[in-house]
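Why do we care about 3D structure at all? Because function follows from shape, and shape follows, mostly, from sequence. That is the central idea of this module. The next example makes it concrete: a single protein chain, its amino acid sequence, and then its structure expressed as tokens.
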Amino acid sequence: MPAGIKGKYHYLYLILDLFSRKIIAWEVYEKEYASRLVRRAIMSENRTKDKRPLVLHSDNGSPMKGATLLETLITLGVMPSNSRPRVSNDNAYAESIFRTLKYRPGYPRKGFATIEDARKWVLGFAPLV
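And the structure:
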């Protein structure tokens, strides 16, 4: 998500259940902190002791393949899954929700002045349960 300064961005991480299309958790950070959100999402869904397998599918971005996130996934018993290189339709559901977010009325084309402004805007789009 663009910040008010050219070249600066806020990072929106969103976890979507592909079967129900439910937004499990989201957070906006100034830096790339995917592992924090994954841990919070699994705890909020009460899946810490669940024996059913969980899979986290993501793009091939560096935060999603980083050692910190991979260690978190292993600790929580979540199997990582990544998109195939140069295949844009592996994340169709995730990409469509981000497109919906960006084309909603009121989305600030010039960016969010603060990270709190970005969080408030996303909260209006996807209220936390």
